[in-house]
Amino acid sequence: MNAQTLLQMKQLRLYGMHRAFSTTLEANHGNYTNDELIAYLLQSEWDDKHNRRIERLTKAAKFRYQAAIEEIIYDPNRAIDKNQFIRFTECEFIKNKENILITGSTGVGKSFIASAIGYQACSQGYRVKYYNINKLFAKLKLAKADGSYLKEVDRIEKQDLLILDDFGLQELDNNKRQAFMEIIEDRHGKKSTIIASQLPIISWHQIIGEQTIADAILDRLVHSAHRVELKGESMRRKRKKS
């Protein structure tokens, strides 16, 4: 009878419940009441589904780094507000549809921090996508050529958190500017975006170009956004010295 029950659990894809019940039988735990056993099996199934969902979300996000909030170094020279980052771990900014803008010179940890926040969001069940922004523009250009552009833009719009890294390495031409405007417009007031850039925010207007569009984009991005301005020595150079 137990063998049949285990088989049915597998067929129903109740893998957490199957594993828990198998363990219970092997350990010969007969001291569970019926209520306790049912609660144990249901909790095991819930935990299994939750963990597998986090794994799927993390894999789909395609982060640049495997990063965790706990790994962030709160060196005073980096100008990182620990209390601010603790608030980020609660993902209230996603619930409130707010953006985070991370700036700082090369190597100071912008991408790592953005990825760490993204991992935290995945752990709470949010859909996250990480892009190097220039690779994203190249992908959208190809999508226009093969007719899948609207599908790609729709996929980006549905992400609870969009991370755009290395913004500002190249000035935007008209096609990139229009694509960027469309992405930001679709997400404004609906979803959250993290942008990481070597350039201070004051320089973004020039990078975007075309005053009217730049004004529209920055008004939607910067208004009420959380700002993180990293300082200090390059973390990559620092690790190399160590």
Automatic annotation (TrEMBL):
<dbReference type="InterPro" id="IPR003593">
    <property type="entry name" value="AAA+_ATPase"/>
</dbReference>
<dbReference type="GO" id="GO:0006260">
    <property type="term" value="P:DNA replication"/>
</dbReference>
<protein>
    <submittedName>
        <fullName>ATP-binding protein</fullName>
    </submittedName>
</protein>
<keyword id="KW-0547">Nucleotide-binding</keyword>
<dbReference type="InterPro" id="IPR047661">
    <property type="entry name" value="IstB"/>
</dbReference>
<dbReference type="Pfam" id="PF01695">
    <property type="entry name" value="IstB_IS21"/>
</dbReference>
<dbReference type="GO" id="GO:0005524">
    <property type="term" value="F:ATP binding"/>
</dbReference>
<dbReference type="InterPro" id="IPR002611">
    <property type="entry name" value="IstB_ATP-bd"/>
</dbReference>
<dbReference type="InterPro" id="IPR028350">
    <property type="entry name" value="DNAC/IstB-like"/>
</dbReference>
<feature type="domain" description="AAA+ ATPase">
    <location>
        <begin position="96"/>
        <end position="218"/>
    </location>
</feature>
<comment type="similarity">
    <text>Belongs to the IS21/IS1162 putative ATP-binding protein family.</text>
</comment>
<dbReference type="InterPro" id="IPR027417">
    <property type="entry name" value="P-loop_NTPase"/>
</dbReference>
<keyword id="KW-0067">ATP-binding</keyword>
